[in-house]
Amino acid sequence: MRIGELARRGGTTTRALRYYESLGLLTARRTANGQREYDEQDLRLVAEIRSLTGIGFALEDTRPFVECLRTGHPSGDACPASVAVYRRKLAELDECIARLEEARQRVRAQLDQAEQRRRPCTR
């Protein structure tokens, strides 16, 4: 399939596909007249990349998953390098959640103080 069809079927743009190719995440075969040509395996790689970036992974983080699929594994997370990326991403998310919870507690305390100051004095 040509790049336009891959983009349409993969739910992305031709520009994104060219970018993936520039990063080495996709490798297009070239026809005699120089046009990019892809197959169903490439569609699977695009789906994996889009799935992972859709949940917050950076493009570079998708590389182990793509490489795992390229080596013939049925799933992009069947390889140890992919599992390591999951673990790292989960640790990053846990750290972010902890910072957000701390910020929430500080905002809650500030709100409680503001509400206390607004209450009329009753004697």
Automatic annotation (TrEMBL):
SMART domains: HTH_MERR
CDD domains, A to Z: HTH_MerR-like_sg3
High-level lineage: Bacteria, Bacillati, Actinomycetota, Actinomycetes, Pseudonocardiales
Pfam family, one: MerR_1
Keywords: Coiled coil, DNA-binding, Transcription, Transcription regulation
Organism: Saccharothrix australiensis
UniProt xrefs under PANTHER family: HEAVY METAL-DEPENDENT TRANSCRIPTIONAL REGULATOR HI_0293-RELATED, REDOX-CYCLING DRUG-SENSING TRANSCRIPTIONAL ACTIVATOR SOXR
Statement: the UniProt record of this protein carries the keyword Transcription regulation: yes
Sections of the chain in a coiled coil: 83-117
Domain HTH merR-type: 1-68
Highest taxon in the source lineage: Bacteria
GO MF annotations, alphabetized: DNA binding; DNA-binding transcription factor activity
Record protein name field: DNA-binding transcriptional MerR regulator
InterPro entries: DNA-bd_dom_put_sf, MerR-type_HTH_dom, MerR_fam
